[in-house]
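Lecture notes, part 5. Sequence design as translation. It can be helpful to think of inverse folding as translation between two languages: the language of shapes and the language of residues. The source text, in structure tokens, appears below.
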């Protein structure tokens, strides 16, 4: 029963991510420039790190962000929805900017490793966060019987079974791509 609800949330968030990605691709130049500058400022933090340190920092950042995303779902699911939308938008902007300088094919090859591991982990985690938010709303309205603790435990169990391993692989791929000479 829970998995069917999660699938619905997952598909809705996939649609939102796709729409936000397209919005990012067509964002006005000043907005795109601000997004690129912000991402470059974050990326500079990782510039001088060695392989193991870089991997650990990327993994730690992604795990902490995703755990907060999951738990924030209890705030009626607003933050997971905003996180998916903003991630889709930023990726769309970065894809457009990369395609303009590197070409569409090379940019796609740089984005694909993230899309195989990191984006599914984000969508999976946000789906459980949204599910928790819907459960919190239903509980506040007196329509939910199951205790939130049970649902929260299930969400964290599924996170560590599915999303966490994806984030480990994503951190390894991202570390490789950053350290690989162009």
């Amino acid at each position: 029963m829970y998995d069917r609800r999660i699938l619905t949330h997952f598909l809705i968030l996939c649609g939102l991510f796709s729409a936000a990605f397209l919005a990012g691709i067509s964002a006005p130049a000043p907005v795109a420039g601000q997004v690129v500058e912000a991402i470059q400022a974050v990326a500079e933090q990782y510039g001088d790190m060695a392989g193991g340190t870089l991997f650990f920092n990327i993994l730690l950042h992604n795990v902490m962000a995703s755990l907060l995303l999951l738990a924030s779902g209890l705030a009626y699911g607003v933050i997971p929805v905003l996180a998916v939308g903003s991630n889709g938008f930023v990726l769309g902007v970065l894809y457009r900017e990369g395609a303009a300088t590197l070409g569409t094919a090379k940019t796609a090859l740089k984005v694909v490793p993230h899309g195989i591991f990191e984006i599914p982990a984000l969508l999976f985690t946000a789906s459980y966060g949204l599910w928790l938010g819907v459960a919190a709303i239903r509980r506040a309205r007196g329509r939910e019987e199951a205790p939130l603790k049970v649902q929260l435990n299930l969400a964290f169990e599924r996170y560590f079974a599915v999303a966490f391993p994806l984030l480990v692989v994503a951190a390894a791929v991202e570390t490789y791509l950053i350290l690989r000479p162009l």
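The translated text above is only one of many valid answers, since several sequences can fold into similar shapes. The chain has a mean pLDDT of 90.
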